[in-house]
Write a structure and sequence with these properties.
The structure is a single chain. A hairpin with a 5-residue loop joins strand 6 (about 100) and strand 7. The chain starts with a strand and ends with a strand. It has a 4-stranded antiparallel beta sheet, with helices on one face. The chain has one domain (about 5-165). It has about 170 residues and is α+β, with helices and mostly antiparallel strands. Helix content is about 25%, strand content about 25%. Helix 1 (about 80-95) runs antiparallel to helix 2 (about 110-125) and helix 2 runs antiparallel to helix 3.
Length: about 170
Amino acid sequence: MARNKCTVKRCTVLPFDVSDSRPFKFKRQSTVLMWVVRTYKDGRTERLLITATIRPGFMTDGASTFWPFSRLVPQWRKGDDNYNAGPTVHDILYILKGRCHTEDGNTYDLSREESDDILRGIWRCWGMSRFLAGCADKAVELVAGGNNHWGNDSYRVRNFCDITVEVLE
C-alpha cells in the first residue's frame, strides 16, 4: 500500500437545513457522524469516530462535478442529506487541510487523499455503486484535486465548521 487509507463503515447525518440555491448556506447546526477504519501504510489500523459539526452560516457549493458528470453525480440533491453529507464533509476537510481535533485538545491530521476516501466512503454508505463512487471521486479530483483547493476557504467559513476525531481502539 502506497499511502494511508480511510474506509467509512457507517455514516449518520442529522438533518440539514440549507438555502435553496448555490452556494448552499446552513441555517441551523447539523452533525455528520462517520465510523471509519484508517489503515496505515505499514498495515496498522485504527477505528475512528469522526464528527463533522456544521454551524449556521457555513456554505458549500456541493459536489465539484461538471456537465456531463453532474447528470450522474449532481452537485446537490435537494432533500437528500445523506448524499449531500459527502461533498459537505469533503469541503470541510479541504478547508481545514485535514486538520481535525481530538477530545483532549490535540490535533489529528488526515491527508488530502484520505479526505477524498471519506467523500467516496460517505457516498458508498448512501448507496452509490462502487463504480460510480470511484468515477465521481476521479471527477472531483480533476476539478478540486489540485493544491490550490487544499486549504482554500473562498467562502470564509472556516469558523463555521469543525471536525473532531475519537480513536476507538
